[in-house]
Amino acid sequence: MSVSKTILVIGTYDTKDEELAYVAGRIRAQGGDVLSMDVSVLGDPSAPCDISKHDVAEAGGSSIEAAIASEDENTAMQIMARGAALLCSQLHSTGRIDGMIALGGTMGTDLALDCAQALPLGVPKYIVSTVSFSPLIPPDRLSPDIQMILWAGGLYGLNAVCKSSLSQAAGAVLGAARAVEPPVSTRPVIGMTSLGSSCLSYMKLLRAPLDERGFDVAVFHATGMGGMAFEALARQGYFAAVMDFALPELANLMVGSVVNSGPDRLRGAGDMGIPQIVAPGCADLIDFAGWQEIPDAYSDRPFHAHNRLIKSSGLNGDERRMLVRDIVARLDAAKGPVHVLMPRGGVEAWDIEGGATYDPEALAAMVDEMERAVTDPVKLSVLDCHINDAAFAETALSVLDGWIEDGALDRRPGA
């Protein structure tokens, strides 16, 4: 018989008591256990919760009385969000919960996003929201493996329509808690970023040699959420080393594109002292959602329409210099070894003579700025090749082998 899984059910039990009780009932009916957390401020639930609103406010460094005295629902809910997120982390780290589900409108969703981000990758986290998948939610608020479902018909009161959403969510979070295999490897892991094999193909050249060296390889698609997952695992100390060769999310962040992974990209491995080999793959491009009109400021740039979901314009020379300075500033803060590879021959598949995004003057500016900006202890190798050439992969392996030989890289799993 399988071990029972406990799901944390989060919500404002003063106004959504009936709906939250329904979710808890569906989880229990499927053999799961429930821990309830009340994040309301003004009212009280019909029955005591396992974690009261007073517990939550205290964990947030305040009190319910202070939240009420603020006379501002945003201020009050931020107190509750701080406390709820901290308690989520503590409950999981002590083994009391196996997943979470939260219900809410905009206020409850705002709090629930913090709770989801407080839990590690691999812990099921489900949000039933009236603004699920809405453009109101910025990309950097989303935890990398979050699940959401629209709370259809759920604005006020339990009904047949919203039961459909609530029952699906209850089954999904419990099922995920039962089925999940947490990201635990028996071999050291190389974390790698890329952008699909048509654009960046070095992983095809690197995977087998890395496997022969005793490493597992996890490749992350650097289109926003992938970068978030990569950074989250780096901060968990999951990687023995990283080959962070796709940095379009930083270019996108710089110009305000929604296709980004938040302000902490290219910081996680460095903060943890994890060895990093870095290259500016696809950092010549600005990615736009396929449904967006290209802003006039970028309408005369080299352009590539990848598919109906994403299209890209090029960065000019000055913008690439600015981006390089940002990249180097992030790497300068690293606590472990860093080696930058700068290929003169191009940084993505279409960055070649005759290619849609080819801009040799802008590429030359990127190379020049990299040579100016990178200083010890960060190392730089400028390569007379394209990022997808065998010479690039061979150089990356040579750097890795050097770290293995001099003991800079710990090959114990999870070390």
How are the SSEs placed, and which strands pair?
Blueprint: E1 6-11, H1 17-29, E2 33-38, H2 53-59, H3 64-69, H4 73-93, E3 99-104, H5 106-117, E4 125-129, E5 147-150, H6 160-179, E6 189-194, H7 196-199, H8 202-212, E7 216-221, H9 225-235, E8 241-246, H10 248-255, H11 268-271, E9 276-281, E10 285-289, E11 303-305, E12 310-314, H12 317-332, E13 338-343, H13 360-373, E14 379-383, H14 390-406
Parallel strand pairs: 1-2, 1-3, 3-4, 4-5, 6-7, 6-8, 8-9, 9-13, 13-14
Antiparallel strand pairs: 10-12, 11-12
Describe the protein.
This protein is of the alpha/beta class and 415 residues long. It folds into 2 domains: 6-179, Rossmann fold (3-Layer(aba) Sandwich), CATH 3.40.50.12020; 189-406, Rossmann fold (3-Layer(aba) Sandwich). The protein is built from 14 helices and 14 strands. The strands form 3 sheets. A 6-stranded parallel beta sheet has the order 7-6-8-9-13-14, with helices on both faces. Strands 2-1-3-4-5 form a 5-stranded parallel beta sheet, sandwiched between helices. Strands 10-12-11 form a 3-stranded antiparallel beta sheet. Helix 1 packs across helix 6 (160-179), helix 2 packs across helix 4 and helix 4 (73-93) packs parallel to helix 5. The longest helix has 21 residues, at 73-93. It is elongated.
